[in-house]
Design brief:
Two copies of one chain form a homodimer. In chain A, 68% of the residues lie in helices and 2% in strands. Chain A is built from ten helices and one strand. In chain A, helix 1 (5-24) packs across helix 7 (94-106) and helix 7 packs across helix 8. The termini of chain A are far apart. Strand 1 (187-189) of chain A pairs antiparallel with strand 1 of chain B. The first copy, chain A, binds a DNA duplex through helix 1, helix 2 and helix 3.
DNA sequence: CCGGATCGCTACGATGTGTCCCGTCGAGGA
DNA sequence: TCCTCGACGGGACACATCGTAGCGATCCGG
C-alpha cells in the first residue's frame, strides 16, 4: 500500500459520511463520527474539508448517478425511462434516506440549500424535457401546464420514496403513469393514435 | 399568576418545541433547549414528558388542524376544499418545517414512525374518500386507480410544500387539479353526462 | 395554620466536539 | 546514502451540552 492513501482515504471518508447520514441523519454527521467509522484520522478529514456542509455535498455527489433524458418518440416510454432508476432502488436504499435527510437539513444551510435545489432541478429537468417533446409531437395538448404535470409526476414518486418509504415497483409506476396520462375524469381517448 | 402554571407551562413548552423543531430541526430539540426557550424549568419538563419523542408528538399534535372531508357532489370542488388548508399556509409556516423534520426523524424512531404514518394517513384519507364518492357518482371511471390518483395529488402538494418550499397558491392549486383531472394526454371529454 | 405537592434553581458527572501539538512515515533531491 | 519536506495519525486539551439529583421556595386544600 503505497503513499496514495489520500485517494483511498477520500473514498472511505465519503462512504462513511453517506452511511452516517443514511442511518442517523445529517446532524449525526460530525468529523469525529466520520473519522471513527472511516478509520481516517479526524485531523486528516479536517484538512481536506473545511466544513460539514462541504463534506456532505461531496459525499452525496459521490453516490448520485446522472439521469439520462430519454427520447423514444413516445411519452409513455420516455416517462417509464425517467422513473426507471427509481424502480431499481429498494426503499431502504441509502440514497433515499440520504436525500430525505438532505432535504431537511437544507432548510438551515444556504450551501446545502443551493446544492439540493440543483439536485432537485436535475431530477425534474428530464421530466420537463420529455413533456415538451411530447407537446411538440402533439402527443399532449399545447395547453398542457407542463410545470403542473411535472409537479404531479415528480411528487408522486418522491413522496412514495422519501416520505412513505415504499418501494417504487413496476406496477406502482405503471399505475401512476396510467392515471396521470389519462387523467382522473371519465373521458375517451383522442381520435388520433398515440 | 396563580398556581395554574401547569397548564400554561404546558402550552409554552409545546410552543417552544414547535419553534425549535421548525427553526433547527428535530435533533435540536432537547429538554435543555426547550427549557431555555419556554422559560419553564428543565426539571419540570422532564417530569411531564418521559422522552423527547413523546414531547415532539405532543407538540406536533398541538399545531394540527383536523381536516374535514368535503362532500359537495362535485369532485373538483371537493378537491379544492381538500387542499384549501394548504393554500392558506405560507411556505415558511412552522407547520411545513415541522412536518419536514418529523418525516426525516421518523426514520429513526419507531414511535415517531407510527405517529407520522397516522398523520400522513389522515391527510390522504379525505382525498381517497372524495375520489371514491366521485367514483360512485360516475364522475370518474370505475377503473380509476384511486391509490395512484391519491399519490399523484398528495405528492404534488406535499413536494411543493415540504421539499420545494414553495407556497401553494390558488393558481398553482388550480393548475395541478386541472392537469390531474384532465390528464396529460390529448383527449376529448366524455360525451355522457353521468 | 399546616401538610402535601409542584416548581425552579444549582451543581454534578458523562459525553461529544473542534482545535492544537507532536511523533511517524514515505517521497524526492543532493 | 542521507537529509529535508510534506502529509498522516494519535493524543491531549478546552469547551459546550446533555440528563440527573438534591434542595429550597411557592401555592393549594384542609
Amino acid at each position: 500500500m503505497p503513499r496514495v492513501r489520500s485517494e483511498e482515504a477520500r473514498r472511505e471518508v465519503l462512504a462513511a459520511t453517506v452511511e452516517l447520514m443514511a442511518e442517523q441523519g445529517f446532524d449525526a454527521v460530525s468529523f469525529e463520527a466520520v473519522a471513527g467509522r472511516s478509520c481516517v484520522a479526524k485531523t486528516t478529514i479536517y484538512r481536506h474539508w473545511s466544513s460539514k456542509g462541504a463534506l456532505v455535498i461531496d459525499a452525496v455527489t459521490s453516490i448520485l448517478t446522472p439521469l439520462p433524458t430519454p427520447n423514444t418518440g413516445d411519452l409513455r416510454a420516455d416517462l417509464e425511462a425517467c422513473f426507471g432508476s427509481f424502480v431499481d432502488q429498494s426503499p431502504q436504499s441509502p440514497v433515499n434516506r440520504v436525500m430525505a435527510s438532505l432535504v431537511d437539513a437544507s432548510r438551515r444551510d444556504p450551501d446545502l440549500q443551493r446544492f439540493s435545489a440543483q439536485l432537485i432541478e436535475a431530477r425534474r429537468t428530464p421530466l420537463r424535457t420529455v413533456l415538451q417533446l411530447a407537446q411538440l409531437r402533439g402527443e399532449v395538448g399545447a395547453d398542457l401546464d407542463i410545470d403542473a404535470a411535472v409537479e404531479l409526476l415528480f411528487g408522486a414518486f418522491v413522496v412514495r420514496r422519501l416520505i412513505l418509504d415504499l418501494p417504487v415497483t413496476d406496477a406502482s409506476r405503471d399505475a401512476v403513469l396510467d392515471t396521470a396520462l389519462g387523467g382522473l375524469l371519465t373521458k375517451v381517448p383522442a381520435p388520433q393514435g398515440g
